[in-house]
């Protein structure tokens, strides 16, 4: 049960409170901390699956926890960047689209699992996740990156909208595939 991949997955869940606290720290230090935590979480997300497959140590708990850890991390960042105003105005629409898709696909996967049907991850969904992670990482670094002359907020907002568009496409694709098993 406590394999290295599972520990990496659990680490993403356990650092969420620290990530949330970093948004309340003095800036730009808090932004640097948020960015580092989010980036490390992204690396653990890649490596936990890679190591599990490479070592043959995939487990039911890992399969269960990995998407939960991902969604909790994404939700925490979206909630924080919106609540503190780093994402505001009409950009909140993109954030809400992403949150709605995360909930929709989670519910769909849970329903389909009960019918012994799995929905494979598509390449479009992998691109969506990549762009979304770049967006959220950049948004975490909104107050820190300007020290280095980097436009994190602008990059984050552009990628957030690209992720929202990909989210609609992939969400529709998953829903269309899932409806075949619901009707």
Structural summary, described in words:
This protein is an all-alpha fold and 183 residues long. It has a single domain, classed as CDP-alcohol phosphotransferase transmembrane (TM) domain (Four Helix Bundle (Hemerythrin (Met), subunit A)), CATH 1.20.120.1760. It has seven helices and no strands. The protein has helices at 4-14, 16-22, 29-55, 60-83, 91-114, 123-140, 152-182. Helix 4 crosses helix 6 (123-140). The longest helix is centred in the C-terminal third of the chain and has 31 residues, at 152-182. The N and C termini lie far apart (37 Å). The model has no long low-confidence stretch (mean pLDDT 91).
Q: Which properties best describe this structure?
A:
single chain; 183 residues; mainly alpha; Four Helix Bundle (Hemerythrin (Met), subunit A); 78% helix; 0% strand; EC 2.7.8.5
The biggest sheet amounts to:
none
The general outline is globular
User: How would you name the CATH homologous superfamily?
Assistant: CDP-alcohol phosphotransferase transmembrane (TM) domain
The domain count comes to 1
Beta strand count? 0
Tell me the β content. Answer: under 5%
Oligomer: single chain
Number of contiguous helices = 7
How much helical structure, as a percent, in the residues? Answer: over 70%
* SSE topology string: HHHHHHH
The CATH class assignment is Mainly Alpha
CATH domain fold name: Four Helix Bundle (Hemerythrin (Met), subunit A)
SS-derived structural category: mainly alpha
- Tell me which CATH architecture applies here: Up-down Bundle
pLDDT under 50 segments (min length 5)? none
Please compute the radius of gyration using only Cα atoms.
Answer: 17 Å
**Straight-line distance between termini:** 37 Å
Arithmetic mean pLDDT: 91
């Amino acid at each position: 049960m406590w394999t290295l991949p599972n520990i990496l997955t659990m680490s993403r869940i356990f650092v969420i409170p620290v990530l949330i606290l970093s948004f309340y720290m003095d800036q730009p230090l808090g932004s640097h901390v948020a960015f580092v935590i989010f980036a490390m979480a992204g690396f653990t997300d890649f490596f936990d699956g890679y190591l599990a497959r490479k070592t043959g140590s995939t487990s039911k708990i890992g399969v269960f926890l990995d998407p939960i850890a991902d969604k909790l991390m994404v939700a925490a960042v979206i909630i924080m960047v919106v609540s503190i105003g780093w994402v505001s105005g009409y950009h909140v629409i993109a954030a809400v689209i992403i949150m709605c898709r995360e909930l929709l696909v989670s519910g769909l996967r849970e329903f389909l699992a009960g019918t012994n049907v799995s929905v494979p991850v598509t390449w479009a969904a992998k691109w969506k996740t990549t762009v979304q992670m770049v967006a959220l990482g950049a948004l975490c670094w909104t107050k820190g990156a300007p020290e280095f002359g980097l436009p994190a907020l602008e990059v984050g907002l552009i990628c957030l909208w690209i992720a929202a568009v990909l989210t609609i496409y992939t969400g529709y694709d998953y829903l269309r595939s899932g409806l075949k098993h619901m009707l």
